[in-house]
Amino acid sequence: MTIRFLSSLVFGVAVVASALAQKPQSKVEVAELAAGCFWGVEESFRTIPGVTSTEVGYEGGSLAKPSYEAVSSGRSGHAETVKIAFDPSKVSYAQLLDHFFKMHDPTTLNAQGNDRGTQYRSAIFYRDEKQKAEAMTFMAKVEKSGAWKSKVMTSLEKGGGFNPAEDYHQKYLVKHPGGYDNHYMRKISFDK
């Protein structure tokens, strides 16, 4: 009886191990979004279910290795950007865009709250043609909805040139609770 029990147990473990090995791994995708000071943008996206990691940095400028000082001068052309890794089986790119258009004011050109300059612009940095098409469709939906009373000023720019910001900027609001953040979720809908 003991041998039969052990054989059944070993067989059962083998079946489970085989099933786990055949389970498809989730594919992680990346979104790069700019919506003002990256501290608050990162914090807004960091805890969304399906977001696997966030990183703040600089995108869309002319310098190969920008520093905070160069970007904050407004002369490098970079925007403070958050790189968001996500599991599309748990949160879609469209859901991230919905969050993006509710957590900041996309109608202000080169500004969010007290932050002024091109480094604080509202921008979607698409990684491929699929993201570009989804972003264009979603931006049209936002505009058509009338949820924002002014024209959406969010730029759609080719991404892929993300440069991580200095370590002290990463997870800034986790390290400094109550620190500067001018982002909040609006109770608006883009469905007409």
Task: Please describe what this structure looks like.
The protein has helices at 2-22, 38-46, 68-72, 93-103, 129-145, 172-175; strands at 29-35, 51-59, 79-86, 111-112, 115-116, 122-126, 155-158, 163-164. The chain is of the alpha+beta class and 192 residues long. It has a six-stranded mixed sheet, with helices on one face. Strand 4 and strand 5 form a beta hairpin. Helix 4 (93-103) packs across helix 5. The protein is globular, with a radius of gyration of 21 Å. The model has no long low-confidence stretch (mean pLDDT 90).
Concise synopsis of the structure shown:
With about 190 residues, the chain is α+β, with helices and mostly antiparallel strands. It is about 35% helix and about 20% strand.
Keyphrases for this structure?
192 residues, alpha+beta, six-stranded mixed β-sheet, two-stranded antiparallel sheet, 6 helices, 8 strands, 35% helix, globular
Oligomer: single chain
**Poorly predicted tracts of residues:** none
Portion in helices: 25-40%
Major beta sheet, strand line-up: 7-6-1-3-2-8
Shape: globular
Strand proportion, as a percent range, falls in 15-25%
- The rounded distance between the terminal residues' Cα atoms is 67 Å
Itemize the secondary structure elements and their pairings:
Layout: H1 2-22, E1 29-35, H2 38-46, E2 51-59, H3 68-72, E3 79-86, H4 93-103, E4 111-112, E5 115-116, E6 122-126, H5 129-145, E7 155-158, E8 163-164, H6 172-175
Parallel strand pairs: 6-7
Antiparallel strand pairs: 1-3, 1-6, 2-3, 2-8, 4-5
Helix pairs in contact: 4-5
